[in-house]
Structures are given as C-alpha cells and as structure tokens.
Design a protein that fits this description.
Strand content: 5-15%
Oligomer: single chain
Structural class: alpha+beta
Mean pLDDT: 95
Bound molecules: adenosine-5'-triphosphate, magnesium ion
Largest sheet: 7 strands, mixed
Low-confidence stretches: none
Number of helices: 22
Distance between the termini: 89 Å
Helix content: 40-55%
Length: about 450
C-alpha cells in the first residue's frame, strides 16, 4: 500500500472527521506533490460530511466558513488553514468558467471524477491508502498531464483547465498527453471568456516553471491568443549577426534563462515585443530595431492592464523593459549612478534581465553572460559594503541644515540637495557634513 506522510495537523483534522463517523481523505495537489517527493504547499481534505455536518464536527475549533456555500470549511490549526470540502460535482458550466451550481454527492468517486487532470484526481487516507481511479499514479510515473475523461468536454466546462494543463506541464516538466494537447490547440479560444485574474495566476506559474521554454515553443497559439501583442514575434527573422534566433525563439530562451520570478519572466516575455513594429533593414541588408524598447513598454502596458497586474509589479516590469537594452557600465561611479536611478532591488533585476537577454541571443557562449553578471554583482556587493551615498536620504545633510545656513525654504533647497548628491556620487565631495555644508554655501552663493 502506498503510504503518504501526512503532517500532524492535517492528520488531526482527518481523524476528527473519522471519529465523528465520516470519511476523510487528503486530495488533489497534496497527494500529487507527495507522490512526486515534493513538499505540498497545503493539505486539502475531502469528506462525505455535508457543510452543516462539518460545522458540527468542528464545533469549538477555529474555523472560517467563507466557502461553505460551495462546500468548503476552513479549519485553522496553529495558524495553518486546512480546507475541508464536501464531495461534490460541479453541475453545468453555461459560461465555460463557473458551474451554475455545485451539488454535494456521497461518493468520493464522483468528487474525483470532476477534477481536471489524472495526477490531480487522487486521494489518500490511512484506511484505504491511495485512491487512484483514473491512472494518476501511472501518469505521474510516465510524466504526463492527461484530462480526467474527454478533454474536449472537460475544457468546454471550464476553459481555464487548458492553461492549468500547460502550467502543470511547465512546472513538472511533464508532457501533455496527445488527446489533451489536441483539445488545447482546438479549444484555446474559449480562454477569452475566463476572468483575467485566473489567467494571470496560471500564466505566471507557467512562466516560472522549469519547462516554460518547451511550453512556449509548443503552444504559441495559446500564448499569442492570450497576448496578441506577441503574435508578430513568432518566426520574425531579425537579420542581424547579433542574433541567432527569430524574435519568438529568442524570447523563449530569455524567459528560460531568467530567474523564475513573475516579474523577471514576464519582463523577458515582453521585452522585445516591439521589435517587429519598428523593424528596418539597411542597405547592407542588416536588420535594426531602433527604439523597440519604448514600443515594447507600450505593448507591455496593455498586457499588464489586461492581466490586471498590481501596480507595483506592472511598474517594475515596464521599468525593466524600458532599460533592457541600455548598456550597463561597470565601475563604482557608474554603479552608484545606477543605484541612484533604480534602487538596489531593481538594479539587481536589471542585471538579471541583461544576463538573460544576452544568454538568449545564441551568438556567444552563455557562460559569458553569466560571468559578466557575476562580476557586476560582485562589484555591486563590494560597493554596497561601503554604504555608498546614492540617494538624498543617505546624504549627510538635509533640508533643515540648508535652511539653517540661510537658504530660504522653497524649491532652491531641493536643487541644492540634488547638486550635492551629484557631487558626492561623482566623487568630487565626500559625504561628510562639514564638507557638504561648505559646498552648499558655495552653491547657494552664501558667504
Ligand atoms: P497547487 O499546488 O498549485 O495548489 P493544486 O493541484 O493544489 O496545485 P489548486 O488550484 O489548489 O491546484 O486546486 C486543488 C485541486 O482542485 C486540484 O488538484 C484539482 O483536483 C482541483 N481543481 C482545481 N481547479 C480545477 C478546475 N478548474 N477544474 C477541475 N478541477 C480543479
Ligand atoms: Mg492547491
């Protein structure tokens, strides 16, 4: 019998249900991840107890019943939430995204059969062991994502499942079973009816997966349906010795090369989107894409809007795209200026964007880009050790000091502070109070 290691608190929740006479199994992602030898993010439990019965079972426990209408009671133990859900089926999906109604059922089998993929449709409890009615374990072993039941019908019920399928394939580097893949190609336009917030979650996980490159390469139809801004990039010949690949293949490789965070991978996905729109060919037949970063920013802005990205992520993505092809100079002074301009976090990301971009060009060995980035980051670290002054905040004088010198309150204060910062960053003045006050007197023409 396949054993699963259930953490103490999840086991307590299941035991409580069983002691009250109900069935209880761990189900879905936690079973899948356990069998893969990965640590599950959370433990979902399913049961034949109905919502009102679950409430009775967990009376006196800390529970939250926001999802109770859909059969979910959240039980909180030591600040850790466990979702306990009544066996249910999802009824009809007239809008391809929400079941019109959920109905509670008494059989685990029915609950498992509404789940999207075989690897997600397994349950486990200590009495029965693994409950695997659709060959999930075999698909895990063979590393394939396969729909439970008829893929066309399952995607018609809920179009998001197509993107979830690509996401799981990307994260686990699994193949997508043939019929499932065919249905995704055939039905992906139904994704147009899925809420942007749900798309964003799955798309970001897809982009951050270890197999993102393979999925982007095999499903340009789905990606460019979601992000039509990228459509002109697919197969677009750059006609330059600086690039080995067309714009889409280059994009794919830069996504794969960048560290797996939503911000970085979305940046890489969109960084060259403007290229085809500004493309020119000179008399020598060499292609150029002057000013493409600016156009990429505009296109990326539309994408961020559509995906309803939060402002902080959006602004960072746009900043990184805007500067993705501006050269980064080494040297302490240049780095100090970059810190001033971007701040430490964004500068580190920008270096990563440049590294990934270089690595994806396919003309020089990727180790060169790695080495360039490692050296730059090393220089940045040693510079930061010295606590350099690169912002008004770290300047040894402030506005009040300048007013005390006799500079009148007003815009002049800010101008003088900025001029002082420039001098410090240029190495013309040390960041010491007396030196700065002298320089300020000079700048303000004070005696
Ligand atoms: P993750 O590790 O990312 O949380 P997960 O498999 O737990 O992956 P969830 O979105 O948390 O994914 O969903 C939990 C379970 O619910 C899934 O394993 C699957 O069985 C089922 N499920 C989720 N979304 C759908 C869907 N759109 N259609 C059918 N079943 C779904
Ligand atoms: Mg989950």
């Amino acid at each position: 019998m396949t054993e699963l290691r259930i953490p103490g608190n999840a086991a307590r929740v299941m035991r409580r249900l069983r002691e009250a006479g109900w069935e209880a199994s761990a189900v879905g992602g936690c079973v899948r991840d356990s069998l893969l030898g990965r640590a599950p993010k959370d433990w979902d439990i399913c049961t034949n107890a109905r919502p009102e019965e679950m409430r009775r079972v967990f009376e006196g426990w800390h529970t939250v019943d926001t999802g109770l209408k859909h059969g979910t009671l959240t039980v909180v133990l030591d600040h850790e939430p466990f979702e306990v859900t009544t066996y249910r089926t999802d009824g009809v999906y007239t809008d391809h995204r929400h079941p019109d109604a959920v109905s509670f059922v008494s059989e685990l089998r029915e609950d498992l059969s509404r789940r999207d993929f075989t690897v997600n449709a397994m349950a486990w409890n200590p009495e029965d062991g693994l409950i695997d009615l659709f060959g999930g374990q075999e698909d895990l072993r063979r590393q394939v994502i396969r729909c439970v039941g008829d893929p066309m019908a399952r995607f018609e019920e809920d179009a998001l499942r197509m993107l979830r399928g690509l996401r799981f394939a990307s994260v686990y580097r699994f193949a997508i079973e043939e019929e499932t893949a065919r249905a995704i190609h055939a039905k992906h336009r139904d994704l147009g009816r899925v809420a942007a917030e749900r798309i964003r979650v799955e798309l970001s996980k897809l982009l951050c997966g270890a197999g993102a490159e393979d999925i982007l390469r095999a499903y340009p139809d789905v990606i460019t349906f979601l992000l039509p801004e990228l459509a002109p990039c697919v197969g677009f010949d750059q006609r330059t010795p600086y690039h080995r690949w067309d714009v889409w293949e280059h994009t794919i490789r830069t996504v794969g090369a960048a560290a797996p965070t939503e911000t970085l991978r979305l940046t890489m996905l969109l960084h060259d989107s403007g290229k085809p729109r500004v493309f020119t060919v000179d008399e020598q037949g060499i292609g150029h894409a002057y000013g493409h970063a600016k156009v990429s920013v505009q296109l990326a802005e539309a994408v961020c809007e559509r995906l309803r990205l939060d402002t902080a992520t959006r602004d960072r993505v746009l900043l990184l795209i805007a500067h993705h092809d501006a050269p980064i100079q080494p040297g302490e002074q240049a780095l100090t200026r970059l810190l001033n301009r971007f701040g430490e976090e964004a500068l580190r990301q920008l270096i990563e964007v440049h590294r990934a971009d270089e690595a994806g060009k396919g003309v020089r060995p990727p180790e060169e880009a790695d080495q360039w980035a490692a050296e730059l980051l090393g220089a940045l670290d040693s510079l930061l050790q010295k606590q350099p002054c690169f912002s008004l905040r770290s300047l040894a004088v402030n506005g009040r000091d300048l007013m005390a010198l006799g500079i009148p309150k007003g815009p002049r204060i800010g101008e003088v502070l900025q001029a002082l910062l420039e001098r410090v960053m240029a190495g013309e003045t040390g960041n010491q109070r007396e030196q700065l006050l002298d320089a300020a007197r000079q700048l303000a023409h004070l005696p």
